[in-house]
Amino acid sequence: MHFVKAKGILSSQNGMNLYRGCSHGCIYCDSRSRCYHMEHAFEDIEVKENAIELLEHALKHKRKKCMIGTGAMTDPYIPLELKLEHMKKALTLIYEYGFGVTLHTKSDRVLRDLDLLRRINEKTKCVIQMTLTTYDEKLCRKIEPNVSTTGERVAALKRLRDAGIPTVVWLSPILPFINDTQENIEGVLELCEEAGVYGVINFGMGLTLREGNREYFYKQLDRLFPSLKEKYIKTYGTDKSGGGKIVGGSRIVQSRAVGRSQPGHGALRGKDCCRV
Ligand code: SF4
């Protein structure tokens, strides 16, 4: 972990990232891509030490209330958050200044802030977005090693639902030859139904294979799925231009609960959330 003084905290679309880098270890994470110009090791989390002051200043001076989004580049509930509580402080400000919030996570640590999220939702609006990629707990541990398993995430979704907070699931990325079976997709959709989620978002395959992302992903394939890298290279090539490929197109099924699409960390996303 290292600290920096940031110049700003909210993007033009009212998104924010309190941290840069992530320790959750998802093998497909697009936030590793070089195009985001991260100048430190991905696991060496950059903490914006003045994030909370910047956020308070921004909220105080906003003319119109809106939804504040977070979780585009980094999971806001990385283990470090338990110690630093930046997310909790940010949510407290969002509540006090009467804004809404939508956050994207793969961690059931979000439940630490359940009461605060419920109060925001009662006062304005809160939508929690969670990624589910597989219903198979063993596969989940392989591809998303350091974060809550699918079962734990579904249990968190149910707690959020019971607290009256709308939830949305990102069924993304779909990794060719890994979690792209009909059985898996149906299994995840059944879990979504069971947890009473408001919507399911799919970004096509959502694997970018951009420079930085691609090397890490292929290294993990070698470690976890022997001979699969060769199949990927044969099928999708080894584009070194940095442009990468969007495997399987980029169809977006947008949720009514989120309204404007809030990009998810790790898979495919828009431009706005990259740098703040
Ligand atoms: S996909 Fe999200 S949770 Fe996973 S490592 Fe990347 S930023 Fe972290």
Task: Describe the protein's architecture and organization.
It is built from 9 helices and 9 strands. It is α/β, with parallel strands linked by helices. The protein has a single domain, classed as TIM Barrel. Strands 2-5-6-7-8-9 form a 6-stranded parallel β-sheet. The protein starts with a strand and ends in a 40-residue tail after the last helix. Iron/sulfur cluster binds next to loops.
CATH class: Alpha Beta
CATH topology-level fold name: TIM Barrel
Tell me the β content: 5-15%
Number of helices: 9
CATH superfamily, by name, is: Aldolase class I
Count of domain modules: 1
Mean pLDDT: 89
Q: Runs with pLDDT <50, length 5+? A: 249-263, 269-276
Total strands: 9
Helical content (DSSP H or I, runs of 4+): 25-40%
Keywords:
single chain, alpha/beta, 276 residues, TIM Barrel, 12% strand, binds iron/sulfur cluster, 9 helices
Question: Can you give me a brief rundown of this structure?
Answer:
The chain is 33% helix and 12% strand. The chain has 276 residues and is an alpha/beta fold.
Mind sketching the topology for me?
Blueprint: E1 2-4, E2 15-16, E3 19-20, E4 46-48, H1 51-61, E5 67-70, H2 79-84, H3 86-96, E6 100-105, H4 114-123, E7 126-131, H5 137-143, H6 150-162, E8 167-170, H7 182-194, E9 199-201, H8 213-224, H9 228-236
Parallel strand pairs: 1-4, 2-5, 5-6, 6-7, 7-8, 8-9
Antiparallel strand pairs: 3-4
This protein binds iron/sulfur cluster.
